[in-house]
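Thread: quick sanity check before group meeting

JM: Hey all, I'm pulling together slides for Thursday and realized we never actually wrote out the predicted structure for the chain we discussed last week. Dropping the sequence here so it's in one place. If anyone has concerns about the input, flag it before I start.
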Amino acid sequence: MPISAEIAAIYARNSKLRGARSVSEQKDIATGVCRENRWRVHGVYEDKRSASRFEARDRKDWLRLLADLERQAFTVLVLWETSRGDRKLTGWATLLDQCRDRRIKIHVINHHRTYEPWVSRDWRTLAEDGVDSHYESEKLSERVLRDSLIAAGNGRPWGTVPYGYQRIYDPHTRQLIAQVELPEEAEIVREIMRRVGAREAVQVVADDLNARGILSPNGGAWRRSTVRVIALNPVYIGKRVHKRNLHDGQWDGLVTEREFRKVVAHLTDPARLTTRPGSQKYLLSYLALCGVCGSDLSGRDHAASRPLPFYKCSASSCVVCPMDALDTYIRDVITGLHAAGDGVFAVGGDELAAQAAVDEAERHKESIKRHILMSGRGDITETELGIVLADLRPRIAEAEVRALRLSAPAPPFNPATGWDAPVPMQKLVVRGFLGRFDGKIQVFRADRPGRRRAGEAMDYSRVLISGERNGEPVIIRAAPGDRARYLQ
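JM (edit): ok, ran it. Output follows.
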């Protein structure tokens, strides 16, 4: 039998579904199909990442496959099943259109059939498969989100077992019974909290643990970052974090909330300079982000074509902006919001307000306990109890998050009175400001490309300051020199 003129490209992708074919199995079967049909194999492409819209990382071999498809390096695309291609409807439809326009066939092993996308019935069959794959992906996402939200609301342990705890399972059903402290590790957690709360250097704590031969959570040496992660983890006050909200956990904390807030206040104190003086030269370098690709912006003193300092995208130079204009703009935004006394965006903490937030959360918790007792006595119905819980639980989560934010100490200087402090101090104020609402600064390309002329104002619509507060998006806008305002 003569060899066919067809040239095949094999694409295999990993799936987490139970019983799904592995990548190696897909490749072996696809190679056999090509051998049976006398197709010459141009290349084998494989990825281990999801093809759904919820996967943030690129599938490198899929992108390489699309590039080869663009230059028509093959005539048949071989897939185990259509969902192995792209679970995003738009991505799958684009692939079908490209194959149709270039008259590239698609062989689906699961269907035992080779499709010709330029034939309307074949295109429709493949398109319907794409709709089904997208629908299944959305259903799976909704189920995972629903389960995680229910688990968070119930305070059920989730994910990796935290250092200092152990989980007890039913020996027969393997269902989780409880998460309880692991005495040896729990004492180390308490020691870390006690020493850091007493303002002992984090590196000193890490070095001491290593000198005593105590293993870190990953079984190796303790590092400064490891100690810090433990010290700032709300799991040790019996809280579970979900979508940046705190929920009461079904386990006991290892330290009190007051001890924990003392540690948080110390570690987030802007006065704690953890870098060498002079090592941070530019205010927004590696703080602001490129609005095109998401990479950090880095500062430059000058370049052959730019005599004045500027920020540029550190990855591919897709965004460039004048340093003086962007620095002044961000300072004005922070100064305006700080002077306005906005409790969300003002930099610095308030211990009295933090304690008031803690007391508020406790009052709501006591109210829940009373209503549960009333329900047990039959004074209120389960429906009425559900309404109370739905109302008070978000209030508790919001008050506890507010308490942690308000525990942050005052900045090393008052932004409203000037920005004459060294750049490292100024960067701490910017970080503290962004930390209030999980914010980020993005700079996009100019509508009119080219360098800014002398005396020409920067287009501040290129700059976006955004974040999230209490699960709601926050966008901050400000005209140059005006008091910043935020839109929610």
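AS: nice. The first strand starts at residue 7 and ends at 13. Residues 288-345+413-487 form one domain.
JM: adding both to the slides.
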